[in-house]
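Chapter summary example: a protein plus pyridoxal-5'-phosphate.
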Amino acid sequence: MTLPIRPDLAGLEPYGAPQLEVAARLNVNENPYSPPNGVVDAIAAAVHKAAEGLNRYPDRDFLGLRQDLADYLRTESHVDFLEARHIWAANGSNEVMLHLHQAFGGPGRKVMSFAPTYSMYPEYARDTITDFVTLPRREDFTLDIEAATAAIREAQPVMVIVASPNNPTGTALPLSQVEALLAAADDVPGGCIVVVDEAYAEFRRRGVPSAATLIPEHPHLAVSRTMSKAFALAGGRVGYLAAHEAIIDALRVVRLPYHLSAVTQATARAALAHHRELQAQVDEIRAERDETVAWLRAQGFTVADTDANFALFGPFEDRERVFEGLLERGVLIRVTGPEGWLRVSIGTPQEMALFRSALLEVTA
Ligand SMILES: Cc1ncc(COP(=O)(O)O)c(C=O)c1O
């Protein structure tokens, strides 16, 4: 039988990194710490209550959750402006991004990003039949902002996506560069929105501000966040976005009805009510990251500066061999980024000790 699959999808493999039971799972930038018992109990109680009403569809506009997210972001990023109507959420920031593409992308439209970057970006574009173009980052993975702004004015994309901190490099974008991208986007005749993907924002080093502080002045800026990383809630699937109301209204048009289940909403709200406990280990992860970077550099590796919960390091003549060698020793990392580089997520001190000893053996 011939399946009428879209020609551009024929033969493609689904996206995804290996999910293996090994001693150190350091390949998808998860938070290595389970939610503390008290928070597990609070989530279980909230889900229990939600279960009593599962015969009904959930709150389609999830206003309670949006209010809680606005309250969190107002405090975390010092943005008084934000209210529930400036917040969107979906099943992971992956789905938030897909909504952005459904609303603003489409045939004949172009999205721009800066490589190397998160490998899902081309997939959102592909799935919505949107053109995806990238500009290379500089050798140290920072943006060449003159080239970036010139390319925006020239190519006239509908959307510019920049991850900050960037995955897989960890590079954070200075606010002056976000402002420069916004100014270039302002010059695109048909309109262009700038999406700053701050999935790893809570891990940024002190003094690195969030692009959310620029939202009040910029109606064409959207800042995407997730509860998957700092909140230790990857399994809950909750991502969110802050922007002016007109952007949120566009996303409301393309979402499926009731896309956020009552269980998801209850889980996310209970987690937000306990965000301090859930994020208690963020400082530890940051410290472990900085120690890991220092150790790798002391061994002679090159490591990209990182504001995230992972580090990109290299160069390796045969990175697959190093990856396999680590895996044989129970350490799962990620082959990603430019040729020769590897990415390791920051785990617990025990996991990182295992990573260090395994790496020394493999590269001896
Ligand atoms: C830069 C970036 N954005 C978005 C995501 C998606 O996260 P989620 O869908 O779990 O919110 C990830 C996940 O690794 C990421 O690295």
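Key point: The chain has a mean pLDDT of 97.
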